[in-house]
Predict the structure of Leukocyte cell-derived chemotaxin-2-like.
Amino acid sequence: MPVGAWSVLCAGHHNNRVRACDVHGCGAFNSKRGNGLHKAVDLVCDDYGIVNAPFSGNLAGPVSRKDPAGNQYDGVKLLSDVDCVKLFNIRPYRYIGPVAQGEALGYLLPLQERFSGITSHLQLQKCDGTDPSPFI
């Protein structure tokens, strides 16, 4: 693994695979989303699958966002000396405290109930809005 590379986030997967395009859009950074661009990366995960910490750091509380249609997405913020990410579409086991790289953070919430035909995924967003792709 290159220095600074993050570990695999989704248990049971061998790599961090970016969601390909489906009927609801594409998962790559800067993909077109409505009238804007997707400033995160969607990583393929299994519904209710365990989500692991990509790097060691501290959980810094819950995060949430709403899309233009009013759907709410919840998750958690992970902070280290060099990185800060928000992980959406997960139910964390806890919201604060230290975590080690590869430690289980929570599990993936299913998206199929709201978005039929979507590829199940977590959304990985850097806190500063830059592209996380080089690290995964």
Observations:
- The chain has one domain: 21-129.
